[in-house]
């Protein structure tokens, strides 16, 4: 490592996950298998990717851990909250993502990951009916109980640091409202007044995490940390926050393929995206109010890559539609179809069809690992507030919309942001420009 002034990753790192369903159990089981040398962390940038540091004669290509002090997988301790009381082993079996041969060797460790009672409000996810739920007087009490959970987890497991990751279902859409979300004081007043319309349970988790010195990552499209009140708290507590929504299947394709159209100066008439999936996520998204939250995050990608102002001839009038259909037989094996209507020389039309038969949790698990390790790193590096360098992993990257900031959704520009942040934290020069 060069002259890095990042604190070392000493001691244990607690990763507390909200939601102990398909994504989180696939993540946990995978990490435990990799630790035993029984599996490979394929898809994880922190475990596989190498980036260039230095130029000319000083040029080297290094793994992230050789540039910055990342937490070791052996130092991770998992915790979780969930509305269903089953342990991580039972949940991994129920999820039917991984085969028994990949679960059984770490059964003992998974059985010991028992979910804490969830802070839950059925109005935010009507399709879920678990009974492992906290009894809360109001939203303020909800946040205090989560804070206590984090403190107890630290004490009982002897962990030095905690990162909190939301990998639970998508909540119904909460429109940011400055009256309630504009300042920390307004947010706290709304929590104490038990304003269940403007204060989502996820906000209580984020608030609690930040109050307990734990960076918070929003892996669903919920309105949670992407409000000025949370930015204020993150600044005050000097903590990094990231969100939102794991970029796994269709949006990953979109953020990588739209640049092909834009770079080649081809025109776009329309982009129709539809999905079928059957896991718990699909069940929750079958509720229109919950789907709307997802739709907002999935729609935002294209518009910031193919921009009418920059190329009015090519991108002024395209039609963009996103659909998600709940289809139980598929379980976690999601299928995403994209039909793209483009035009070329003299306006002649052409079509592109992409059919991505992906496994949602298999794509999400390495993102969970990368986001938690990189957020822990950012915290030790003294970075706080919105971590834009993590946009690469997220569907709707957090940005300051109060200042009309446009998020970077272009996959290869996001990758430059990621590499430059790692270079800087490793004590090297950030030497790539985003055009």
Walk me through the structure:
The protein has 435 residues and is an alpha/beta fold. The protein has 2 domains: 13-246 and 362-425, NAD(P)-binding Rossmann-like Domain (Rossmann fold, 3-Layer(aba) Sandwich); 250-359, Dihydrodipicolinate Reductase, domain 2. Helix content is 38%, strand content 18%. It is built from 16 helices and 13 strands. It has helices at 22-35, 45-48, 88-95, 100-103, 107-111, 139-157, 178-181, 184-192, 201-211, 228-237, 250-263, 280-285, 288-303, 312-315, 360-380, 411-425, and strands spanning 13-18, 50-53, 60-63, 76-82, 116-117, 161-166, 216-218, 240-243, 267-277, 319-326, 333-343, 349-359, 385-386. The protein has a 7-stranded parallel sheet, sandwiched between helices. A 4-stranded mixed sheet has the order 10-9-11-12. A two-stranded antiparallel sheet has the order 2-3. Helix 1 (22-35) crosses helix 3 (88-95). The longest helix has 21 residues, at 360-380.
Give the biggest beta sheet.
7 strands, parallel
Number of helices: 16
Q: Give the ordered list of helices and strands.
A: EHHEEEHHHEHEHHHEHEHEHHHEEEHEH
Strand residue percentage: 15-25%
Q: In CATH, what is the class of the largest domain?
A: Alpha Beta
Largest beta sheet: strand ordering: 5-4-1-6-7-8-13
Helix content: 25-40%
Which SSEs are present, and which pair or pack?
Elements lengths: L12 E6 L3 H14 L9 H4 L1 E4 L6 E4 L12 E7 L5 H8 L4 H4 L3 H5 L4 E2 L21 H19 L3 E6 L11 H4 L2 H9 L8 H11 L4 E3 L9 H10 L2 E4 L6 H14 L3 E11 L2 H6 L2 H16 L8 H4 L3 E8 L6 E11 L5 E11 H21 L4 E2 L24 H15 L10
Parallel strand pairs: 1-4, 1-6, 4-5, 6-7, 7-8, 8-13, 9-10
Antiparallel strand pairs: 2-3, 9-11, 11-12
Helix pairs in contact: 1-3, 1-15, 6-9, 8-10, 9-10
Keywords: Membrane, Transmembrane, Transmembrane helix
Pfam families: Inos-1-P_synth, NAD_binding_5
Protein name: Inositol-3-phosphate synthase
